[in-house]
Amino acid sequence: MGLSSETLELPMDLVTDEILTRLPAKSLMRFKCVSKHWLSVICSKYFSNRFLTVPSPRLYLSLRNHEDKGKSVILSLAPSSSSSTTPSSFVVDHDLTIPRMGGNIVQFFRGFMCYICRSRAHIYNPATRQLVTLPFTRNMIVPRGGDKVVYYYFGHDPINDQYKVVSLISVYSLGGAKVMSKNWVFDLKAGGGGSWRKAALTPPDFSPHQLGVGGGVCIDGVIYYVVWVDYKAVVVSFDVRSEEFNMIQVPPRDGDEDLRRTLNWSLTKNLALLEHGGKVTLFDQTNLKNKGVVALWTLEDAGTKKWSCKSQALKPCQMHLVSGIKFLIRGTTQKGKVILIPKRIFSPYHILCYDLQSNDMTKIEIKGIPDHWFSLHKYNISLHLMFMDQSESVMCWET
Fold it and tell me: Where are the membrane-spanning stretches (predicted)?
């Protein structure tokens, strides 16, 4: 029997689900040139969402040199080994820096990086290297001697497959005695364009607030972030679909009285908002450095505003990992492990991965950072690191 001259064609859904989703995003960007059909498949919403379901552990490190006009780099790091659930090291494999990059990374979500530079929000896709710069929010008059703080939070409505950015603008007078805050919403549209509009649906008890804490998290279409009202922590929730805000009081903590007494706002960095077990969780490291103890506040029910609290002490043999070091909390992995990064850069640099279930802390080396960064004065460098263990995004917004 002779060989058939007919060409075997694979079903496109098989190509999409079993072949293309296994490729790195960088390869997919090249394959868009194969044909118009492949271009339409790779750029489709279905494929973009399907690609997000394929795990791809990766770190993104932003370094900013304040001595050199805020010169910044963004580095991509891959695990040194894929055989372990918790790699012993991550290695720099790509420099993702592009013109106009800079500022502070505040959130990493569904493959997109949200950062603030000169009070403007920027959405960056490290896989496609597309940068979308949002317009300035509407100006608010700052009283003499006062100040203005702008924060941005990024979320997604899974029902309508819609991305939105929320802006919190807080204006306060000298000493912070009189505070005014407003929220604005921006729809990210596939066709580009759009403008800020004032958020409408706020409850009667929605108090003016100031000083957000780090980035927010988006869980099941709701953005959560932490603010401060009368020196007390409050979680704000924003439903991305209905655009309704709510305020959820956090129970009294050990650090509340210290903040009220000293007015040292750096103490607010001891509190970080995480997603753990599918729930909003506050990770309180007030007593970590000195006592090796963390407090976990979990929002059990957002409707009834019910919290549970659990204190957890490190194993004595691991106290040396946290002793005398200031950490920033940078989210959790899909397996619920908390990422802690030292606030200042040093060589050799490392981060910590804290498994809350087994109460085990692991040291992870960071390799490949260019040597000249270690020769700069530590106070002239801003360091931001985000962990992403869901896949990269191949979605593009037209601009």
Answer: none
pLDDT in tens, 268-320: 778 889 998 889 999 988 889 889 999 999 999 988 899 999 999 999 999 99
Longest dimension (CA), the chain: 91
Tokens of 79: 């695990």
Co-location of 348 and 313 in the same domain? yes
Show contacts of 26-32: CB within 8 Å, 24+ apart.
26/127, 28/394, 29/127, 29/128, 29/394
CATH number at residue 352: 2.120.10.80
pLDDT in tens, 324-370: 888 888 888 878 889 998 988 888 999 999 999 999 999 999 999 98
Taking the C-alpha atoms of residue 196 and residue 188, their distance in angstroms, rounded to an integer, is: 10
Residue 32 shares a structural domain with residue 125:
no
Residue 167 lies in a domain: yes
Cα gap 319→385, rounded to integer Å: 23
Q: Across-strand partners of 347?
A: none
CA distance 26 to 333: 23
Look at the block and give the residue holding tokens 């403007």: 120
For residue 45, the enclosing domain spans 7-51
